[in-house]
Amino acid sequence: MVLVNGEPASQVDVADRGFQYGDGVFTTLKVLRGVPLFLEAHLARLERDAARLFLPVPDRAVLEAEVRQLCGLKPEGVLKIQWTGGGGGRGYRRPDAPTGTRVLGLHPLPDYPATLHDQGVAIRVCRTRLGINPALAGLKHMNRLEQILARAEWSQADIREGLMLDTGGHVVEGTMTNLFLAQGGRLHTPKLDGCGVAGIMRGWVLVGAAELGLAVEERRLSLDEVRAADELFLTNSVIGLWPVSRLEARAYPVGPISGAIWRWLTTKIQAALDPSGPISH
């Protein structure tokens, strides 16, 4: 089910700037039991990202109503909310008063084995590098060609994710996830001031680590530091948290820190749902 500006649709105007130039932002979240998880945080991020790109800020009340409409029709899935620069003539210059286009789609949940949360995943390092551009750093904008190229580098079903470095050689993120490493009882995650996406689940992990008394540092990370970590784990709003069990030839334990963070996240997810029953991962 897809809504375009509030109407059921399967297409957008070919003149839309999101289609023509990738001029827009988006956010993706999980829906369980009819509840869009962490919706407020996702909409706040969408508004911040739109403002940073000098797009008009979408009407939150309208978005919330359309989210409720979709979740009422399909209680589980992956909800993608896109906000574009709207229609416009040819050329990069936006209209003087862009109106924006809303596209909300609710799609089936991916068929990830539940055991990945406990057993971990195998990942690799991608050859494709992320360009450094502080003006876009942290944003979930609609230009994803770097991630598309990186994801095209492998087809093995047992490799769940690929790590991406920037052109300076620092590890930034996965193609669809944020990265955390544990070393000596401390958490580290790449600093996202040059490129990368500041994921909603990444933000919750930072909050959870503070509540659990874990020190966290956001900083530049080399590939050697990542390989030498005691634990690695990945996060996004659909998978939640995946421990890393193998990075190419190096094996990692599913350790206590990733376990503690995942239990904390699970309580937050459960709190958003009917507390009378267990959640389905």
Automatic annotation (TrEMBL):
Q: What class of enzyme is it?
A: lyase
The cofactors required by this protein are: pyridoxal 5'-phosphate
Q: Does the keyword Signal apply?
A: no
One Pfam family, short name:
Aminotran_4
Reactions catalysed: 4-amino-4-deoxychorismate = 4-aminobenzoate + pyruvate + H(+)
Q: Kindly list the GO molecular function terms attached to this UniProt entry.
A: 4-amino-4-deoxychorismate lyase activity; pyridoxal phosphate binding
Answer yes or no on keyword Iron: no
Q: Name one GO cellular component term.
A: cytosol
Give, as in the UniProt entry, the pathway in which the protein acts: Cofactor biosynthesis; tetrahydrofolate biosynthesis; 4-aminobenzoate from chorismate: step 2/2
InterPro entries given for it?
Aminodeoxychorismate_lyase_IV, Aminotrans_IV, Aminotrans_IV_CS, Aminotransferase-like, BCAT-like_C, BCAT-like_N, Class-IV_PLP-Dep_Aminotrnsfr
E.C. designation(s): 4.1.3.38
Query: Its GO biological process terms?
Result: 4-aminobenzoate biosynthetic process; folic acid biosynthetic process
Keywords for the protein's UniProt record, in alphabetical order: Folate biosynthesis, Lyase, Pyridoxal phosphate
Quaternary structure, per UniProt, is: Homodimer.
Role: Involved in the biosynthesis of p-aminobenzoate (PABA), a precursor of tetrahydrofolate. Converts 4-amino-4-deoxychorismate into 4-aminobenzoate (PABA) and pyruvate.
Q: Which family does it belong to?
A: Belongs to the class-IV pyridoxal-phosphate-dependent aminotransferase family.
Q: What is this protein identified as?
A: Aminodeoxychorismate lyase
Organism, as annotated: Methylomagnum ishizawai
